[in-house]
Amino acid sequence: MKLNDLRDNPGARKKRMIVGRGIGSGKGKTCGRGVKGQKARTGISVVGFEGGQMPLYRRLPKRGFNNIFAKDYAEINLGRLQHAIEGGRLDAKQPITEEMLVKAGVVAKACDGVRLLGKGEIKAKVQLTVTGASKSAVAAIEKAGGKVTITAPAKQKESAA
Fold this sequence. Notes:
Strand order of the largest sheet: 1-2-4
Strand content: 5-15%
Radius of gyration: 32 Å
Oligomer: single chain
Number of helices: 4
Largest sheet: 3 strands, parallel
CATH class of the largest domain: Alpha Beta
Order of helices and strands: HEHHEEEHE
Helix content: 10-25%
């Protein structure tokens, strides 16, 4: 075997079709695009166009809305918190904050804060500081001998005027 004998496998490299170079090439004049019109031009986009009929996305009713003021909380369940403590990623003897949860990898990112939810079981006595917590989660931590500090302001009840 010599270096000048090296070749690609047959069919490994396919040559690009050359268009617009005369009638004899088979791809001359209109270059395989048919005749004039929108589809013969570059940069066309006819996705969702239904030939003048009212498109499906306009026939269906609009529903719901997107609240731009809604808070996006990172959620953590009690079972996951207990698993992190047992795995040695969190120290139950120290007060646990949202920054510590992110650093330990229990929560990916804090978003608008961390909200504690009551799924699972916790045995460790922990002092936790989070933005929000469900009543069942607070009750479970207090039953285990811990304490939860909630930093978010309490919602005010609207009075009838």
